[in-house]
Amino acid sequence: MAVTTTTTTTTTTTTGPLQIHKVPQDTYIDALRWLPHLSTFTRHILLAAYDSDTSTPSLKSLTFSPSSSSLTLQSSLSTPSRITSLKTCPSKPLIAASTFSGSLLIYASDLVTGSLKLEFSVPEKGFHLGAVSGIDLSENGSDCVSVGEDGRVNLVSLSDMGGFRRVFDSNGLVSYSAVKWASPVEFVTGAFGFGLHWWDQRKPGGPAALFKGNWTGGTASGIVHSIDIHPSRKHVCLAGGSSGAVFAWDIRRPQQPVILSGVGIGDNPTNSLVESDIWEVQYDNYTNSSRMSNSSSSSSRILPAMICSEDGILAVIEQGEEPIELLVEPCAINSFDIDRQNPSDVLCSLEWESIAILTRQ
């Protein structure tokens, strides 16, 4: 197995010391995720890779050793085409990957060795017309929801080995770009025009709630690239997209989004740390809100979030607070992942064929 040694630096942010391991790769990284780990001494990382020299896409599993700051390749499997979205199950060693060719791949991972095994796939024919834009695995690993620019929303049953049903088909009138489960029967989709649709399987026929932002006065179109929903606040959807926009949508107040960063609304512009596309957004359970404990309205405040952007910024943003920059690069930061088991650890991919592993102390 190939072993790669990292370059390690230590810096200081406003929240304390930050250790950064940078690891060069020989392929482009389309997406990455932490895999669940059984030991703090051995960590497993999942990479959706693309070799531009040979036009070969693959899914790779690597082992990271914090003590030696090295990466070891454990498994590499070819995929039908480049991976568009990569998700792991919170409760099972299951992985879902969608592709540009329109297929969905389900893998099982060995938590001891980090090796990968293809369980089954949903073929392109009849699933989506073109690339699958976004997917998400349910918390119990029983279902996977998928969306595409073709306007289709599909629900895949993992227990049925890839059988799926079409939840909705807009016939191209609406293009979906992201999706996230909110509960066992609810999920949220992101679309062009900063649109969000809330779906409830108990109410078939279409979205149960809609939100459409018009923040630029019609001067520019927007796309929602990423969605997250906090387990303890499933009524609030966090979204990131074009023009540095990061906002929260509370379905209890459907027409009053909370703008965390971006262009602002009407006469209330919001200062933006980022002016380019926000490629990914996640709630940051490691960062404690400075006002939560002292505010009588803490339940209505948006929890801290982490973002990565096209202009090379990885940062934590919080409602009403100055953002915290964790990493600033001269190239795009395409994706990141916060370790669920140890939220102090963050993994991100850099456009210049490398990854960075950050440890907050």
UniProtKB/TrEMBL annotation:
Keywords recorded for this protein, A-Z: Nucleus, Repeat, WD repeat
Keyword Repeat: yes
Keyword flag Phosphoprotein: no
Protein origin, superkingdom: Eukaryota
Cross-referenced InterPro entries: WD40/YVTN_repeat-like_dom_sf, WD40_repeat_dom_sf, WD40_rpt
Annotated compartments: Nucleus
Name under which the protein is recorded: Nuclear pore complex protein NUP43
Annotated source species: Penstemon davidsonii
High-level lineage: Eukaryota, Viridiplantae, Streptophyta, Embryophyta, Tracheophyta
